Amino acid sequence: MSHNLTRGALARICQGEDVDEPLVQVLGHMAIQGQERYRLLLSDGQYTTSFSMLATQLNNMIHDKQLEKFTVIKVKKQICNQVPGMTKRVVIVLDLEVVTPGAQVGSKIGNTVQLGSDGKIPSDLSPG
Length: 128
Fold this sequence. Notes:
Blueprint: H1 9-14, E1 23-31, E2 38-43, E3 47-54, H2 59-63, E4 72-82, E5 89-100, H3 102-105, E6 113-114
Parallel strand pairs: 3-5, 3-6
Antiparallel strand pairs: 1-2, 1-4, 2-3, 4-5
């Protein structure tokens, strides 16, 4: 089965672009200590970011094991916020739809590069 992730979407979202319903892959998640929030490791097939969070109203998707490793999701609504006083940018997933469960995908899609905490492409990988 072919999974066409929206390549480059995470970098574009972090740069303030409105990307309509991108397909991305969940590579992992972890609870944020002391909070009922989850940090997500997401990939768009080109870039990965660990600076993303799940909106608390979607926590049941973690509890119900709908966002297991390698799951492909359609992000229906997201925002990218800059952390006050820092250059760090965080993508918050506000609404999503599971496209393909991770057990059916079975592996990471693409050969990805980690985005910087500021949401920018590492300078040694920028074109030109």
